[in-house]
Every structure is written in C-alpha cells, then in structure tokens.
Design a protein that fits this description.
One of its GO terms (molecular function) is DNA-binding transcription factor activity. By secondary structure, the chain is mostly helical. The chain has two domains: 65 residues, Multidrug-efflux Transporter Regulator, Chain: A, Domain 2 (Orthogonal Bundle), CATH 1.10.1660; 160 residues, Multidrug-efflux Transporter Regulator, Chain: A, Domain 2 (Orthogonal Bundle), CATH 1.10.1660.10. Helix content is 63%, strand content 3%. It is built from nine helices and four strands; from the N terminus they run H-H-E-E-H-H-H-H-E-E-H-H-H. It has a two-stranded antiparallel ribbon. It has a two-stranded antiparallel ribbon with strand order 3-4. Strand 1 and strand 2 form a beta hairpin. The longest helix is centred in the C-terminal third of the chain and has 41 residues. It starts with 12 loop residues before the first helix and ends with a helix.
Amino acid sequence: MPSDSKQRPVYVISVAAELVDMHPQTLRLYERKGLIRPGRSSGKTRLYSERDIEHLREIRRLTQELGVNLAGVEEVMRLQHELDDLQGEFEAEIQRIEGELREQQSRPQALPAPDGSVDPKDRPVYVISIAAELVDMHPQTLRLYERKQLIRPGRSSGKTRLYSERDIEHLREIRRLTQELGVNLAGVEEIMRLRHELDGAKGHLERNVRRLQEDITERMTAWRTLPAPGSEEQQDNAAREQEEG
C-alpha cells in the first residue's frame, strides 16, 4: 500500500463512523464484505485511515446518490483497492530500482534492454459487427456503451470503429455486471471508469519503470567507457588541464 499520510491508521471506529455519518455496525459490515480494510492497533483495535474515510464516503455516494446495489459497490471498491495497491507497488519498484542504481555505481554491469512493444491486447483489430458477435450483443448496444464512455474503441484511418481484445474483455465484464450481478448503469459507469483508470495506472507504472531501466542502462554504458584510474588517457587529460591552467 502507498506510504503517504492518508494511509496512516488513526481513527477508532466510533470517530470514523461519526466522520462519515454511519453507524459503527455498518462499518463492521463493510469490512466483512471486503469494501474497506482498516488497520489494527497492537491491541487489535480497528483503526481507520484518511483513505478509509474517503472509501466510506464513496460507498455512501454510490448507494445513496447513484442507487448502486451492494454487488456493484463491491466491484467498485475492489478496483479502488487494486489502484491503491498498484500505487504501493509502483513506489516499491521505484525504491528498488533506485537502490539498484546506487549499487551499480560501485559494481557496473549490463542490464537487459527494455521491451518497448505495445501490449497485443490493446491492438484494435475487430470491426463492430465482429466485436458484437464475440460478446453476444447488438452493435447498437456497443455504440451506446461508447457514448457512455464505458468502452473506448480505436479508429481506423477511415474512422471505422476497431475494438481490441481489452475492449472485448471490458464488454464481457459489462454484461456480467448487468446480467449476473444486476448492477445498474450508474454503477457500471463507476466500475468501468475505475477499470480504465487502473489500466492507465498500470501503463504509467510500466512506462516509468522502463524509463528508469533505460536510465540505468545509459549510466552503465557511460561507466564502462570511463578510463580506468591512472590510465594513460586519464594522465594525458590531467596534463592538458595543467597546461591550460
């Protein structure tokens, strides 16, 4: 999980319940459902963080303002927790790479070249008729979902909609939410917004890790080309500097 101050568990359940205008028993129910994940003190007392308070307020908004059922709320909060965990993984990976960089300064070695290829799941390949057949929906339904921004198909040079494997996965997920879990459209919109955010966060993490790996590789190359201490080239450089001085 992220290490920022919002993750610090500080509120006992009575204070947390008052902050979000809920009964403490409701908070216990949400914890059993896995919607929130409060910390524990050494004495096993529940302690809620600012992030937990934000999540509880989001649950109240989904249920009271948007009318999302509990199954839909569970999906939303599961994705929100995935985003929180991904942020923690990103921070840990950055720390790991920075530590590796410091280690390499005293012991340079070659690193594997990063793979900059595009995920094949994101390649737009299916026209709307094929995509609709794959997910057992009418093409007009796919157009509606696009207007609602539940899916975001690509476009060919001629402006034809082209759907990727990831779009197909998202459409199947929409069908599962609506048909199996009975989630209303407002809930589906929230869930798919978080799914797109999660996909974007994963891509951002991968790009940043790749950038750091490239930086390490460049530094390794530079260190390998430096002359050894006391080498003839280094002595010549020092002599030239003295003459110029």
